[in-house]
Known about the structure:
This protein has helices spanning 3-11, 42-47, 80-88; strands at 14-16, 24-25, 34-35, 51-54, 63-68, 71-77, 114-118, 129-130, 138-139, 146-147, 153-155, 167-169, 174-177. By secondary structure, the chain is α+β, with helices and mostly antiparallel strands. The strands form 4 sheets. Strands 1-5-6-7 form a 4-stranded mixed β-sheet, with no helix packed on it. It has a 4-stranded antiparallel β-sheet with strand order 8-9-10-11, with no helix packed on it. Residues 1-39 have low confidence and may be disordered.
Amino acid sequence: MSDAHAGDVNRRDFLYLATGAAGVVAVGGIAWPLVSQLAPNAREVAGGAPIEIDISAIEAGQVITVTWRGSKYFVYHLTEEEKAAAEKQEQSHFRDFVAADSRISGPEGGEAVWSIYAANCTHLGCIPTEVKGGGDTWNCPCHGSKFDVTGRVTKGPAPVNLPQPPMVFASAEKLIIGTDKVGA
Length: 184
Ligand code: FES
């Protein structure tokens, strides 16, 4: 990992956002701001309906966690440096290689700087934690699997990449998880 990327990791805020989320709240004793998470409405909870996420407040280098169908997903806004580093990383670095571009998307007419993937390790389901100070972006605390900024596994025992949900950008500010069609 480049020094530039390490710097991004160090300054990266960790945010939690809920469906249709709105505000940012300061939490004493925590070194990063927290975006308030609103509970999904009853229909969404009951039916697993798509969820709408306001991504307008998520700055480059920040990641939020959302819940869809009872599972958590990371919504990661990559910096240009993170995206470039992911794209040039050698294929041999990965256990389940796919091109970084295939896991990075964005709104129509906007920048492709978003990577959205499950927050549960593909080994036994633990939630990876963000790595501070270099190396891969995510480390699974249970058995040490590691994942890059796009959720690609670089070290086992996790056998495959963090899966990506169906998703679509309805606008530059709105991401929908749970469908790949706007208005579906
Ligand atoms: S659950 Fe993540 S490495 Fe085992």
